[in-house]
Design goal:
This protein is of the alpha/beta class. The chain is 27% helix and 20% strand. It has 37 helices and 58 strands. The strands form twelve sheets. Strands 1, 2, 3, 4, 5, 6, 7, 8 and 9 form a nine-stranded antiparallel beta sheet that branches. A nine-stranded mixed beta sheet has the order 42-43-44-41-40-47-48-51-52, sandwiched between helices. An eight-stranded parallel beta barrel has the order 10-11-14-18-19-20-21-22. Helix 28 crosses helix 31. It is globular. The two termini are 49 Å apart.
Length: 1449
C-alpha cells in the first residue's frame, strides 16, 4: 500500500482510480527507459530537434516533428523566403535537412537569421509555421506576426553562468513579478533593468524567491504571458536570451531562487506564429476537435498521451532549468489540467467524490507526475514546484514515490478570494474570525500550501487590489503625510498590515506577494490594448511612491520588510507547530501560535482592550518584536513599552498552560516571542570554509570591518571581525542596528597606493546599508548577502545544486567544453558578475531504468581511487563521459544493479579475463576446465534482447554473455536478435523473404563483429523489419496497458529469420552452414524448434542440427488465442503442429497457443538458469501449467539446470571499483578498509564491530523487501545478549513506491545506522560486496540470482531464502560442527518474518561471538567459482550430450 493510503484512509475507496495514474506514470518511465535511454535523456529533445550543430562534420541539421505533413521547406532571410531547402521525411513524423557550412566556413543559416517552416498539409494546403523548438522569436513590426530566429551567438557573446543555485528555501517567500511592468516608466522594461533595480529590492524586502511571469514568448503582450506561442523562446520584448541568463545569474548571486510561471496547461490558439495546428491538422500537439479547446481561455490543449508531446513538454521543463538556470516552476492552470471539465461550473467542498471518477483527466495527472519527477531528478536540492489549483486535489503535494503528484506546494487560492469577498460584501463588524481562521488553516496534512492575500489576479483591470478596496479614491488625495488625516486611509493602512500578517502567519508553509502590493500599489494593472489606446500608463510599477518620504506608501513597505525579517529570524512559516487558541467574534480578537511566535490581532473597528488575557504555552516572559502600531509603520506608538519590557507568565488560559495580559488597541496586531530568544544580540558571521555561501572572497575576509550607524545615519567606530569559539569570524552587536561592511584601504601591503584606489571596498552585491530588525545570527557571504539563519546553534543553510551549466555553451564554435573547471571555479571570460567557488552540479546520467533518488547527502564514489589518500592533479577540461558513470556518486547515478555491467567494451572484457587467468594459473585449487568434444560446431544464440543493444532484464545480460563466452571457448558464434533501433557500427549483410500472416515479408540482416583476439570472436546479427520499430517498449505498450497485438507475428518472424541466417549469410568468407546448435531463449524464441522441425528438417535441412531451449522465467510463456491466429494462415505451420503448440489457460481454455509449451515439447533439450529451478518447474507450484511437459522432458534425461555465471568484473582481486583489491591471503584487513570506506561514504557510523547488512535489488514483494523493513527495528534494538543492536543496514533498490518510502523512513528513523537509497548505482553495488558483512536476499522465488554469488566471491556472507538458484549457490550453516568447512551462508525455509529473523539472529550470533566460524565461511565463499567459464563448461557438457543423442522429435 502506498504511503498516501496509510496517511489518509479516505483515499482507500479511490485506490484503483489513483493507482491508474500511478501505473501510467510507471509505464511511461519504463517506456522511456527501454526506448529512450531513460527520462533524463528523453527530456533532451532540444538536442534532436530544431537547429543542431555537428562541429566535426561542419554542418547544422534542422529537424521538426510534422506527423501529417506531405512536404516541408525551411525558408527565411537566408534564402529570401524561397522554397529552396526541402526537408526530408525521416520516419515517425520527423522531417529533417542537413545544412553543410559554406566553403568559406560560414553557416547557411547565420546567427540572428529569421526563419519559418513552409508546410504542405495532408489536404494540400500550404501553411507557414514557426519551428516548434525555435530558441527565439522576433515580431515583424509591419505585420505584427512573429518569425523564428536562428539564435546561436559566438562564444564570446554568450553569457556564462557564474553563481551557484541557492538551496531550496525551507521558508519559501515568493515575490511574483512581471519583467515588462517592473519599472516606473510607462514602457516595456528589460531583463537588465530588472537585474539592476528590482532584484536588490526583492533581497532587501526579505523574499527568498522570485516568480517570473510571461517569460516564454507570447504574441499578445496583454495575455500576461498565458497564451504562449513559442515554448523554448524567452520573450524578446525584454531583451536577449543572454540578458535573461545574466539576470537569473544575478538573482542567484543575491541568494534568490528563481521560479518560472510555466504554462503547460494550454497554448495560444495562434497558428501562424504559435504551436496550434503545427502540421496543418487540429491534432498535432493538441487533442482534435472540441477536446482540444478551452473555450473560456480561447486556447488549445495539449494531448499528454502522445509520445512526442511528452518529449516536447518534458524537454521544455529541462530546457529552462538547464539553459537559463531557473530553479523551478509555478505550474499555471493545474485545475484545468486535472479535470475533463477543466473545473468549469464545479464547486469543490473537499469531499473526495469531487476529485475522482469520470471527470478526472488521467493523462494530465500522469504528465504532472512525470514533470515533477523530472524536476526532482534534475535539481534535488534546489528545485521548487508549485501548483496553481483551486480545487484542492488530494495528494497533489505528496511525493511521486508516495503516490502523489510530486508538487512541493499548492497555492491557497481560496485565501485571496476570501479577503476580496469580505472587503466587497461585509462591514468590519461582520467579519467572522472563525471563518477567517478556518480558511487560512484549511489545507491537507503533509501537503504544503503557499498563502497570499492577493496576487496578479486581483491587480488586473476589472478587479481591485486590497489597498484599493480599502482606500479607493482617497488614495489619490490623502496618501500624503502633509494632507489632512483620513479615517479611510487610517483604516486601510491598519487592515492592510493586519491582513498580510495574519495570512503570512496562519495561512500556509510559504507566502507570495505580487510586485508592488507590498507598498499598497494604487490603481490596477492594464496592458496596452486598443481599448486603452495602446497605453502603458497602467502597465508599470510605481516604485517611486514608497521612496517618496512624505507619502504613506513607505509605511506599507516598511511593515512588509520588517514582517519578512521577523519571519526569517523565527522561520514560523515552516514550523509544524500551529495552534489557534482564540477566535472571539464578539471582541474581534484572534490569537494563535506559530513556531516560537505568539500572534495577537484585534480586528475590532472601535474597541481597544487593556489587560486582555492571552493564553500561551511558554513559562517565561514575552516581548513584542513586531506590532502594526509602530511609528515607522504609520502607527501611534501605543505598544512601544512591550518592545523593551517583558510580559510575565500567568496562570493557564484558553486551554494553554500559561497566559499574559496585553494591551490590544483597535485594529492592531502584535507578534511576541520568549525573552530568552532576544538575549544574544546581533551576531554577524562571515561565511568561510565549508559554509554554504562561502564562495571565493574578493579579498581576505578577515580584513572586513563593520561600521554601525547612529540614529541619524552617522557612522560609529568601526569593528573588526574576530575569531569565535566556532572557529569563524564574527562581530557581535548589542541589538538590532543599521551598519555598513567594508574593507578599509591600506597604506601598505599592496592594497592601495594610488589616488584612484577608493577609500573603502565593498562586496559586489552589498547594499549601501545593512539593516537588522531583531536579535539573531546573521551570515554574510562573499557576494555581500546578509541572511539571518536564526539563533545561536541553528544550522547553516544547505548547499544548492551548483552552477547552472547551460545547454548551448560552445555549440556554435569549437567542440563543447564545460564552462566550469572541475575544481568548481568558473572561467572568468567576459565576467559581469563575481564568480562563485562552489561545487559543479554535473548533469545526471541515466541508464536503462531509473527512479527518483532521495537527496541523501552521501559522498561521491570515485571509481578510480585505490585508497582514500590517492589524489591526482585536477583535470583542466572536466570529466569525460567515460568516467562520469563511475565517479558521480550514488545520489546521481542509476542502473540495473545485478542486471547491469560496467564493462561492455570487447577489449576491456578480454583484458579483464586475461588478468583473472593469470591469477588462476597460480591457484593450486583451480578446477581443470572441461574439454568439449564439439568445439567445431557453430553456436547460434537466439534472443529477443541482447545487452548492450536492447535490455529489459536479465535475459539480455545472459544472451550477451553467451556470445562472448562461447566465442572464447573457440566456437564459431552467432547471436541473432531484432534491430529495435539505429545501432552504431552495423553493416548490411543481406536479406531474405519470409512467408507469414498470409503475406511475404522482406527482412534485412545487419552485422557487427566483435573480435576477442587469437581468431576468436562473435557475429552479432540484427534482424530488421518494420514490426520491430516501436516508439514504446520492446514487448509492451504502456499507453495501451498491454502487449503489442502483433507480438506473435514479430517473434515468429524472428525465429524463421534466425533459422535462415546460418544458411544464407556469408560472414568472414563463409556461411555457418546447417550443422549448428541453436540456443533459443524464453518464449520469444519458442517457435524456433517448431519451425526447425516442420519447415526445415522435413525438407532435409538442419538434419544434424539441434535446439536447446533455455527457460529464464516460467512466469512468461507467450500465450495467444488460437482462434485468432490460425496455424496455417498466420504462422505458416501445418495443423499437426497443434500437438506442440496447444496449451491451456484459465481465460482462454483450450483455445490457447503456448509458445513456451511448444518449445519444451519440440526442442532437443531444456535448460533452466539453476539446477534447483529445473526441479521446481517440474512441480505444479513452479511449473505454472507446464509441469507435466517438464517432467516428461526430465524423464527423457533432456532436462537440466545451470547456474548463470557472473562476469569477470566481479572479482575482488581485479575490481577497479573498490577502494583496495584483495585475495584469500589478505581479505580480512583489506575488507576492513572497504567497510570503513563504505560506512563513511554512505553516512553510517564508522564502527568496525557493527554487523553491516546489505540489500541490492528490486523493491517488490517477490524480493522479500517487506521482511527486511519489518525487521529493522528488531535488528536495531539490543536484547541484552550482545547479538542485536550493533547493526547497520544498507538498502539499495528501485521499484514499488511503498517500499521506497519504507526505505526513506528506515533511514530517517535510524540516522547513522541505516542507509535507504531509492535507485541503483552499479559502483556502489561493488562497494557493498566488498564492504558489507552480510548480503540479504530473502526472495520469494529466484530462478537463478546473481548477487548472492557476487557476495561469496567478495567474502560477504549471504542470508537467503531456500529457493531456486539461491538454494543451489549458497551452502548453509545448519550444523556448526558439520558444516563449518563448507558453509558459505545462511538459508531460511518459510517465506515469513519469523523464519527470516531466526536466520538473521544466527548470523549475528556467529558474527559477534564466533569469529572463527564467520571467517571460515568467508574463506569458503572466496574459494567458490561462479564465473562464466565454470558455467559455460556445464553448457559444453549439455551440448555434447545433445549432439551425441538422437533428435528429440
Amino acid at each position: 500500500m502506498l504511503q498516501i493510503f496509510r496517511d489518509d484512509k479516505g483515499l482507500v475507496p479511490h485506490e484503483e482510480h489513483i493507482m491508474q495514474r500511478v501505473r501510467a506514470f510507471q509505464g511511461w518511465k519504463e517506456e522511456f527507459a527501454r526506448n529512450e535511454g531513460g527520462m533524463m535523456k528523453f527530456a533532451e529533445g532540444y538536442k534532436q530537434f530544431g537547429f543542431i550543430r555537428h562541429e566535426a562534420e561542419k554542418k547544422w541539421t534542422f529537424t521538426e516533428w510534422l506527423p501529417k505533413a506531405k512536404c516541408a521547406f525551411l525558408v527565411g532571410e537566408f534564402n529570401n523566403w524561397e522554397n529552396t531547402h526541402p526537408l526530408q521525411s525521416a520516419g515517425f513524423g520527423r522531417w529533417s535537412i542537413d545544412l553543410p557550412d559554406k566553403p568559406d566556413g560560414s553557416w547557411v543559416v547565420p546567427h540572428r537569421c529569421q526563419v519559418r517552416l513552409r508546410v504542405e498539409s495532408e489536404f494540400g494546403a500550404w501553411i507557414d509555421r514557426i519551428p516548434a523548438w525555435i530558441k527565439l522569436a522576433w515580431q515583424d513590426k509591419t505585420t505584427n506576426l512573429f518569425n523564428g530566429v536562428m539564435w546561436e551567438p559566438p562564444p564570446a557573446e554568450r553569457y556564462v553562468m557564474k553563481n551557484a543555485r541557492p538551496p531550496r528555501p525551507t521558508n519559501l517567500k515568493v515575490y511574483e513579478a512581471h519583467v515588462g511592468i517592473a519599472g516606473i516608466d510607462p514602457c516595456v522594461h528589460t531583463y537588465t533593468e530588472f537585474k539592476d533595480n528590482v532584484l536588490p529590492r526583492i533581497k532587501r524586502l526579505g523574499y527568498n524567491a522570485v516568480q517570473l511571469m510571461a517569460i516564454a514568448e507570447h504574441a499578445h503582450y496583454g495575455s500576461f504571458g498565458y497564451h504562449v506561442t513559442n515554448f523554448f523562446a524567452p520573450t524578446s520584448r525584454c531583451g536577449t536570451p543572454d540578458e535573461l541568463k545574466e539576470m537569473i545569474d544575478a538573482a542567484h548571486a543575491h541568494g534568490i531562487t528563481v521560479l518560472m510561471d510555466l504554462v503547460h496547461a494550454h497554448m495560444s490558439s495562434n497558428q501562424i506564429d504559435g504551436l496550434a495546428s503545427q502540421d496543418g491538422t487540429d491534432h498535432c500537439y493538441t487533442h482534435g476537435g472540441a477536446k482540444g479547446k478551452q473555450e473560456q481561455w480561447d486556447s488549445s490543449l495539449f494531448d499528454y498521451n502522445k509520445h512526442e508531446v511528452l518529449r516536447y513538454l518534458l524537454s521544455n521543463i529541462r530546457w529552462w532549468l538547464d539553459e537559463y538556470g531557473f530553479d523551478g516552476y509555478r505550474f499555471d492552470g493545474v485545475t484545468s489540467m486535472l479535470y475533463q471539465s477543466h473545473g468549469i461550473g464545479k464547486g469543490y467542498s473537499g469531499g473526495y467524490h469531487e476529485y475522482f471518477g469520470l471527470d478526472a483527466d488521467i493523462e494530465s495527472h500522469t504528465y504532472l507526475m512525470l514533470a515533477n519527477d523530472l524536476i526532482k531528478q534534475l535539481l534535488p536540492n534546489s528545485s521548487v514546484s508549485i501548483a496553481e489549483d483551486v480545487s484542492g486535489m488530494p495528494t497533489l503535494c505528496r511525493p511521486t514515490e508516495e503516490g502523489g503528484f510530486g508538487f512541493d506546494y499548492r497555492l491557497s487560492m481560496a485565501v485571496p478570494d476570501m479577503w476580496i469577498k469580505m472587503l466587497k460584501e461585509q462591514g468590519d463588524y461582520d467579519w467572522d474570525l472563525g471563518h477567517v481562521s478556518f480558511t487560512l488553516q484549511n489545507r491537507r496534512w503533509k501537503e504544503p500550501c503557499i498563502s497570499y492575500a492577493e496576487s496578479h489576479d486581483q491587480a488586473i483591470v476589472g478587479d481591485k487590489t486590497i489597498a484599493f478596496w480599502l482606500m479607493d479614491a482617497e488614495m489619490y488625495t490623502h496618501m500624503s503625510t502633509l494632507s489632512p488625516p483620513s479615517m479611510t486611509v487610517d483604516r486601510g493602512l491598519a487592515l492592510h498590515k493586519m491582513i498580510r500578517l495574519v495570512t503570512l502567519g496562519l495561512g500556509g508553509e510559504g507566502y507570495l506577494n505580487f510586485i508592488g502590493n507590498e507598498f499598497g500599489h494604487p490603481e490596477w494593472l492594464d496592458f496596452p490594448t486598443a481599448a486603452n489606446g495602446w497605453s502603458y500608463q497602467h502597465a508599470r510599477r510605481r516604485f517611486d511612491l514608497p521612496e517618496t518620504d512624505h507619502l504613506k506608501y513607505k509605511f506599507f513597505e516598511a511593515f512588509d520588510e520588517v514582517m519578512q525579517a521577523i519571519e526569517q529570524r523565527y522561520k514560523f512559516v515552516s514550523s509544524p507547530h500551529q495552534y489557534c487558541s482564540k477566535k472571539d467574534n464578539m471582541d474581534k480578537v484572534l490569537v494563535f501560535e506559530r513556531g516560537d511566535c505568539l500572534f495577537v490581532f484585534n480586528f475590532h473597528p472601535e474597541n481597544s482592550y487593556t489587560d486582555y488575557r492571552i493564553g500561551h504555552p511558554w513559562n517565561e516572559g514575552l516581548r513584542i518584536v513586531l506590532d502594526s502600531d509602530e511609528g515607522r509603520f504609520g502607527g501611534h506608538h501605543r505598544l512601544d513599552w512591550g518592545h523593551a519590557n517583558s510580559f510575565p507568565p500567568g496562570e493557564g488560559w484558553d486551554g494553554r498552560y500559561h497566559s499574559t495580559q496585553l494591551y490590544l488597541p483597535s485594529r492592531t496586531c502584535q507578534v511576541l516571542v520568549k525573552e530568552s530568544l532576544l538575549q544574544s544580540g546581533v551576531i554577524v558571521r562571515l561565511a568561510t570554509g565549508t559554509d554554504a555561501g562561502a564562495a571565493q572572497w574578493p579579498f581576505p575576509p578577515e580584513e572586513l570591518q563593520l561600521t554601525p550607524l547612529g540614529l541619524e545615519g552617522q557612522p560609529m567606530e568601526a569593528m573588526p571581525f574576530s575569531g569565535s569559539k566556532a572557529g569563524g569570524l564574527s562581530v557581535r552587536l548589542p541589538g538590532p542596528a543599521s551598519f555598513k561592511i567594508h574593507r578599509p584601504s591600506k597604506a601598505s601591503g599592496g592594497y592601495s597606493g594610488s589616488a584612484s584606489t577608493p577609500a573603502q571596498e565593498t562586496l559586489p552585491f552589498a547594499p549601501d546599508v545593512y539593516r537588522t530588525y531583531v536579535p539573531g545570527v546573521y551570515v554574510l557571504d562573499a557576494r555581500g548577502n546578509l541572511t539571518c539563519i536564526g539563533g545561536e546553534g541553528d544550522p547553516l543553510p544547505e548547499v544548492g545544486d551548483g552552477v547552472p551549466a547551460g545547454c548551448s555553451v560552445a555549440t556554435a564554435g569549437q567542440p563543447t567544453k564545460s564552462s566550469v573547471a572541475t575544481t568548481g571555479q568558473p572561467k572568468q571570460k567576459d565576467a559581469k558578475l563575481p564568480a562563485a567557488s562552489v561545487p559543479v552540479s554535473r548533469e545526471p546520467r541515466e541508464a536503462a531504468m531509473c527512479n527518483v533518488p532521495e537527496p541523501i547527502q552521501k559522498q561521491s564514489f570515485d571509481a578510480g581511487a585505490k585508497s582514500q589518500n590517492d589524489e591526482g592533479p585536477p583535470s583542466e577540461t572536466g570529466p569525460d563521459t567515460a568516467s562520469d558513470a563511475v565517479s558521480m556518486g550514488m545520489s546521481r547515478i542509476f542502473s540495473l544493479s545485478a542486471l547491469d555491467t560496467l564493462i561492455n567494451d570487447p577489449a576491456e572484457r578480454v583484458e579483464q579475463r586475461n588478468r583473472i587467468i593469470s591469477f588462476d594459473q597460480h591457484d593450486e585449487e583451480a578446477v581443470p576446465r572441461y574439454e568439449a568434444r564439439h568445439i567445431g560446431t557453430p553456436i547460434v544464440v537466439v534472443a529477443s534482447e541482447v545487452n548492450p543493444w536492447s535490455k529489459t532484464g536479465g535475459l539480455a545480460m545472459v544472451a550477451g554473455s553467451y556470445g562472448y563466452e562461447f566465442a572464447m571457448q573457440g566456437h564459431r558464434t552467432m547471436v541473432v536478435t531484432p534491430r529495435y533501433g539505429e545501432y552504431q557500427d552495423m553493416v548490411y549483410v543481406g536479406f531474405t523473404k519470409i512467408h507469414l500472416d498470409g503475406r511475404e515479408h522482406e527482412v534485412k540482416y545487419f552485422h557487427q563483429r566483435q573480435d576477442y583476439g587469437e581468431g576468436k570472436g562473435a557475429d552479432y546479427i540484427f534482424v530488421e523489419h518494420d514490426c520491430y520499430r516501436r516508439p514504446a517498449g520492446l514487448y509492451w505498450d504502456p499507453k495501451e496497458g498491454k502487449e503489442y497485438g502483433d507480438n506473435l507475428f514479430r517473434f515468429a518472424l524472428l525465429s524463421i529469420a534466425a533459422l535462415e541466417a546460418p544458411l544464407i549469410l556469408n560472414l568472414n568468407g563463409s556461411t555457418y552452414g546447417q550443422d549448428c546448435v541453436f540456443i533459443a531463449n524464453d518464449w520469444q524464441a519458442g517457435l524456433l524448434p517448431v519451425y526447425m522441425l516442420y519447415k526445415y528438417k522435413r525438407n532435409n535441412t538442419y538434419r544434424n542440427a539441434r535446439c536447446i531451449f533455455v527457460i529464464h522465467n516460467m512466469g512468461y510463456q507467450g500465450k495467444y488465442q488460437l482462434s485468432s491466429f490460425p496455424l496455417d494462415s498466420h504462422l505458416s505451420l501445418p495443423q499437426e503442429a497443434l500437438h506442440f503448440l496447444q496449451g491451456e489457460d484459465l481465460n482462454l481454455g483450450d483455445d490457447c497457443l503456448n509458445l513456451m509449451a511448444a518449445a519444451v515439447k519440440s526442442c532437443d533439450r531444456v535448460l533452466t538458469v539453476s539446477p534447483n529451478y529445473a526441479m521446481e518447474i517440474q512441480s505444479p507450484e513452479g511449473g505454472q501449467g507446464l509441469h507435466e511437459d517438464c517432467r516428461e522432458k526430465g524423464a527423457q534425461l533432456r532436462m537440466g539446470g545451470i547456474l548463470n555465471g557472473i562476469s569477470d568484473e566481479w572479482n575482488p582481486r581485479t575490481d577497479p571499483h573498490i577502494p583496495v583489491n584483495y585475495s584469500l591471503d589478505d581479505f580480512q584487513e583489506k575488507r576492513a578498509i572497504c567497510k570503513r570506506d563504505l560506512q563513511k561514504r554512505l553516512g553510517l557510523h564508522e564502527d568496525p564491530e557493527a554487523a553491516l547488512f546489505g540489500f541490492c535489488g528490486r523493491l517488490c514483494y517477490q524480493k522479500g523487501v517487506h521482511l527486511i523493513t519489518a525487521s529493522i527495528p528488531w535488528l536495531m534494538t539490543p536484547e541484552g545478549q550482545g547479538v542485536l543492536g550493533r547493526t547497520q543496514v544498507i538498502l539499495m533498490g528501485k521499484g514499488d513506491e511503498k517500499y521506497a518510502a519504507e526505505l526513506m523512513q528506515a533511514e530517517n528513523s535510524n540516522k547513522g545506522k541505516v542507509c535507504g537509497y531509492n535507485g541503483f548505482d552499479p559502483t556502489v553495488e561493488h562497494h557493498m560486496m566488498a564492504g558489507c558483512d552480510f548480503l540479504l536476499m530473502p526472495s520469494q522465488y529466484e530462478p537463478c540470482g546473481l548477487p548472492q554469488m557476487y557476495a561469496q566471491a567478495y567474502g560477504t556472507v549471504p542470508i537467503v531464502h531456500e529457493t531456486g538458484g539461491l538454494k543451489d549457490s549458497v551452502r548453509g550453516l545448519w550444523d556448526e560442527g558439520r558444516d563449518r568447512s563448507t558453509a558459505t551462508g545462511f538459508l531460511f525455509c518459510g517465506f515469513d518474518e519469523n523464519h527470516f529473523k531466526e536466520r538473521c539472529y544466527q548470523a549475528l550470533e556467529v558474527f559477534h561471538k564466533k569469529k572463527d566460524i564467520y571467517k571460515q565461511m568467508q574463506i569458503n565463499g572466496l574459494r567458490c567459482n561462479y564465473y562464466w567459464p565454470q558455467a559455460i563448461d556445464e553448457y559444453e557438457k549439455h551440448i555434447d550430450w545433445t549432439l551425441e543423442a538422437n533428435a528429440a522429435v
